[in-house]
Amino acid sequence: MDKIKIVGGNVLNGKINISGAKNAALPLVCASLLTADEVTLKNVPNLSDITFLNSLLQFMGLKVEKKEDIYNGYPATTYVYKANEIKELIAPYDFVRKMRASYYVLGPLLARFKHVEFSLPGGCAIGARPIDIHLSSLEQMGANIEIKNGYVIADAPDGLKGAHIIFSKASVGATCNILMAATLAHGTTKIENAAKEPEITDLIDLLNKMGAKIQGRGTSILTIEGVKELNGAVHGVVADRIEAGSYAIAAAITKGRIELINANPEHLQQPLRVLEKMGVGVEILDNSIVIDGRGKTIIGEDVYTDYYPGFPTDLQAQFMALMTVAEGASLVTESIWENRFMHVPELCRMGANINIHGRASAIVRGVEKLSGAPVMATDLRASFALILAGLVADGETIVNRVYHLDRGYEKLEEKLKAVGANIERIKEAD
Ligand code: EPZ
User: Fold this and answer.
1) What distance in angstroms lies between residue 242's CA and the mean position of ligand 1's atoms?
2) What CATH code would you report for 22-227?
């Protein structure tokens, strides 16, 4: 298994182009199942999650063509998808266990082909991750759902029908699934308490280009008037706000200056506000955000994760890495996932002073210096937090289980090296 070696102490300086968002691309790829026409997605990040999803959909019969392209002035990947010969309506356990977001096939396949079988994903390191909201909403739309041998078997022999659905939680995944399902349902669907993340807005934009009739973009009430069929479309994946936020912290923690090219400041309002309160310089330019930590004293600040536009849970671990070397104390409260402090013991092994209170809160007291160590994390964002800690730690940090990072950070070492980090991947046979 590959490892990443970092020698801390370099001040980062330069430009990083922000890739397309993983969490937007995953549902966009599955939206291509809604039509027999070609769906072209530009700016798809080259990540193992996308490769896994493509292989699942190819197994089902989706045609996938990959092209190297240029997007917003930088090399990027374009995929052309065509779902005119779908043969398998089953997502087997071997695919789903590798990539939970495979559940995005549920809505599109049930809506277009009236049947889907899908292995239940189970929990993961950050929480139990139930999909009850997805399933109960599909039931409200007339689907018959049975759970057998670890699989969800869903049927809608007469097609799905519009419904008035009120989500108990503003779930990102359920919003995407039900949006896709409702585009081809008979009648109108109204979703209340829908998630409002930019990745959802991006999905709505693609679906509307494909001929869907969705209103309420960017709000918590979405109205979808079902149509008979959808057509092909061309769409560019929105910039990854979590990747941008992660590199913003790399600038702040090393007291350097990084220009985040193609990042969208509107999608990062809370994280940028917290950075400013911590004493970091933030400047919004036409097509970029400049994060400037040069000569700044970083001070502690409290953070409470929440649904968008609240502070994103997917940046909690990275901000905590910054707090470990800030002046004074910071209180971090995680309200979305029940087990998202796995980075804490590893940061403490590097010299951080963090106390967890109950399951949801952690007090971080800033220390003068971290020291390098061999570390590992059990999820993607926690792994990036350890990279950040390694960038300022004395000596060498080895981050194990790099496959987590490969799921969500395109060209990680290349991007960090280009701004001056001393980082390299150590290849090791499995
Ligand atoms: C998405 O997960 C993201 N993943 C996560 O990013 C992110 O942390 C999360 O949204 C919250 O922003 C993808 O987009 C692929 P949810 P998702 O459904 O859709 C509960 C990363 O690091 N819930 O919004 O699975 C759930 O337990 C990943 O890139 C139910 O109770 O999250 C959680 O407490 C990690 N029942 C809350 O809702 C359900 O049926 C929010 O979950 C569904 C969710």
Assistant:
1) 14
2) 3.65.10.10
